[in-house]
Design a protein that fits this description.
8 strands, eight-stranded mixed sheet, binds coenzyme A, 194 residues, Aminopeptidase
Length: 194
């Protein structure tokens, strides 16, 4: 896998770039919020050290291409507002998992949709992946809407796959194929021409 530490993606309103040491406070605040973490795979973070550790891991993992996590900042300025990532790469099957979190004050403005469109285009384009997967809590309707808007199909239901802080929860498994993405792009182009 190629190194990701120099990668930057830009969208109309956002710059997506690797995390830096000075993102630790903003990253911590996002993941300390119980609403953001309601359906996450860990409890809300309890100290900024968790953010510092995650950033330190990325400083090793991104140059090695082990996973790709990008921080979201608004082009108009300001601190980090979220992250999106590709992880669990399987090179021979050309697939990976997608993950994302946005700071609560930024919800509902289409920012994550904008970021994920850029990330998915990169995954199917530059990285030549064939399939993306998302594992979400079936109760996480905001996340399900984000995936549906990108064209992900709900493919499976796995019972009691997670236990977080003693709470047992299921997985809804979503998938998006490169061919689904291409077909949607063609339909959009045709609709714009009509
Ligand atoms: C999942 C999550 C990222 C979605 O955030 P979001 O802001 O709702 O996502 P989007 O960027 O797609 O925004 C879409 C909403 O903004 C609205 N919107 C406003 N302007 C928009 C624009 N220009 N383009 C698209 N949508 C726009 C849409 O109508 C939509 O509202 P709706 O969901 O009521 O239909 C967010 O809820 C989150 O961080 N949750 C906690 C972490 C989490 O659960 N992550 C997933 C774990 S697997």
């Amino acid at each position: 896998m190629q190194p990701f530490d120099q990668l930057a993606l830009s969208t109309e309103r956002l710059l997506l770039r690797p995390l830096r040491a000075d993102d630790a406070d903003a990253l911590f605040r996002i993941h300390a919020d119980p609403q953001v973490m309601r359906y996450w795979s860990t409890p809300p973070w309890s100290g900024v050290a968790v953010a510092e550790e995650l950033i330190a891991k990325d400083l090793v993992a991104l140059p090695a291409g082990q996973h790709l996590r990008l921080g979201l900042t608004e082009r108009s300025g300001g601190a980090l507002v979220g992250t999106c990532s590709l992880f669990a790469f399987n090179q021979s099957c050309r697939r990976a998992e997608i993950g994302y979190a946005l700071a609560r004050p930024q919800w509902g403005a289409g920012l994550m949709h904008e970021a994920l469109r850029a990330l998915v285009a990169f995954a199917f384009g530059e990285l030549k992946l064939n399939r993306l997967e998302a594992d979400i809590d079936p109760r996480n309707s905001a996340s399900a809407r984000s995936l549906a808007r990108l064209g992900f199909a709900k493919e499976g239901f796995l019972r009691e796959r997670w236990i977080v802080d003693g709470e047992v929860s299921d997985t809804a498994l979503y998938g998006l194929l490169h061919s689904d993405w291409r077909a949607a792009a063609t339909n959009e182009t045709n609709a714009a021409r009509a």
